[in-house]
Amino acid sequence: MFQVQNQVLRPQITAHLAQTMSLLQMPATEIRQKIRTELANNPALEVVEDSRCPSCGRILSTPGPCPMCSQPFDTQLDEPIVFISSPDDFPTQYNKNGNLSSPQEISYDNLAAAVEDLPSYVLRQIAPEIEEDERLIAAHILNNLNEDGLLEVPLEEISQFYHVPLSRVTRVADIIKRAEPTGVGASSPQEALLIQLDLLKEDVKVPYLAEEAIRIGLKDLSKHSYRNLAKELNTSLDHAQEIAEFIKANLNPYPGRAFWGDHRQPSESSTQAYHKPDIILKEVDNSPNHRLMVEIISPYRGTLRVNPLFKQAQKQVPENKTEAWAKDIENASLLIKCLQQRNHTMEQLMTELVKEQRGYILSGDPAQIQPQTQAEMSELLGVHESTISRAVSDKSVQLPNRKIIPLKRFFDRSLPVRTTLLRLVENENTPLTDTELVEELSNAGYNIARRTVAKYRAMEGILSSRMRQKV
């Protein structure tokens, strides 16, 4: 009897886990599309209006008191208030006067969270590394990126257009490719992945044959054909799967999608475009101890549930339709449970993250980020590391100072080092060489190699000591 039950339960558990992991990694747009498709195809699934707190108007994601109104101010300092918010609660459009186009008034209505477009962001990074007359070449390259952040124009064409040597255009293109998001301006997804992998080797242990997998097995990787990949690489199936998981968790074949989505805005648009964060962090109003509040923006409006009328009518359907009706109810229930699990995982993650990174969140100073890896967070929450990787993938956070950053920045161990490096250079009397910077960083508690200093210096747009001497 137990074996039979176990055989029935195992596929259900596997389906639940697989769908939860998939939803965890999906961007909000894909989740909304999936829900629209399910609502259109599954009569057992329906969406109803959210229940809201009568006092503050916020969504009540679970039965019981409002997570905001019921919280006293004298609770633990580092314990944040975490809850799910409706996408309707976040303003996406402003009129020409800078006011909300919607009449609904909310506590963060004067949001000033405009994000640079991708070309401007990259150009600002590389400006110190290129000559004045190369900026036009850089701008030409950046303005010809597609929505994936890849360059669609051959470098030879740009060389001919500006009547400059191809080597000079290539130099500018190479500088762009190593800016953030890494791989932007590559000619193909494969090149973008190889660039990212090359830089990643300096900081983490890369699985053996990962580069070869990208060079010769990209088609197998995209199709999840791990047996073919193992055969191509002459390695075991387990190792091929390990390589695939590493690439999926750490690399992005479409660098333009990493944070901006589509970086082009229609010129005829009459409203400003604002990047909508997935999570909003802010201080609780009038909190004497600067308590933090975490709003996780739901990717969809309303509350999903199994249609009670459909469930009741199931008892009266003809026998030949019973199985189909039961399947619809099962699929609807599974989707609802997986979405709830997704929200629960995000709430757990943000609760611990806010406790750990409170100093950085309140100050906005990257030097205050506490070194923490995704592996350490997964151990803290008792989940697999891949769960954390999926949870932070392609998500952004708005800090209390209204700056929007990628969620994965909280796990960027290089950021405090780069911030310290930047301050060392800003306060130097005479330009410090990379070797001297290594020594200064070591005194500050950061032991890194000289080539890593050179890499971080380039990422922060800092010239070499020789060039700084000239300036």
What does this structure look like?
The chain is an alpha/beta fold and 471 residues long. The chain has 3 domains: 16-90 and 277-407, no CATH class; 118-257, Arc Repressor Mutant, subunit A, CATH 1.10.10.1330; 413-470, Homeodomain-like (Arc Repressor Mutant, subunit A, Orthogonal Bundle). Helix content is 48%, strand content 6%. It contains 20 helices and 7 strands. The strands form 2 sheets. It has a 5-stranded mixed beta sheet. A two-stranded antiparallel sheet has the order 1-5. Strand 3 and strand 4 (292-297) form a beta hairpin. The longest helix has 38 residues, at 319-356. The protein starts with a helix and ends with a helix.
Layout of SSEs?
Layout: H1 2-25, H2 28-41, E1 45-48, E2 81-85, H3 118-126, H4 135-142, H5 155-162, H6 166-177, H7 189-200, H8 210-216, H9 218-222, H10 226-233, H11 237-250, E3 279-283, E4 292-297, E5 303-306, H12 308-313, H13 319-356, H14 358-363, H15 374-381, H16 385-392, E6 396-398, E7 404-406, H17 414-426, H18 434-443, H19 450-459, H20 465-470
Parallel strand pairs: 2-4, 3-6
Antiparallel strand pairs: 1-5, 3-4, 6-7
Helix pairs in contact: 1-13, 1-16, 3-4, 4-6, 5-6, 7-8, 10-11, 15-16, 17-19, 18-19
Number of helices: 20
Low-confidence segments, given as residue ranges, are: 1-10, 91-115, 259-274
Order of the strands making up the biggest sheet: 2-4-3-6-7
How much helicity do the residues have?
Answer: 40-55%
Order of helices and strands: HHEEHHHHHHHHHEEEHHHHHEEHHHH
Shape: globular
Please indicate the count of domains.
3
The total strand number stands at 7
Residue fraction in strands: 5-15%
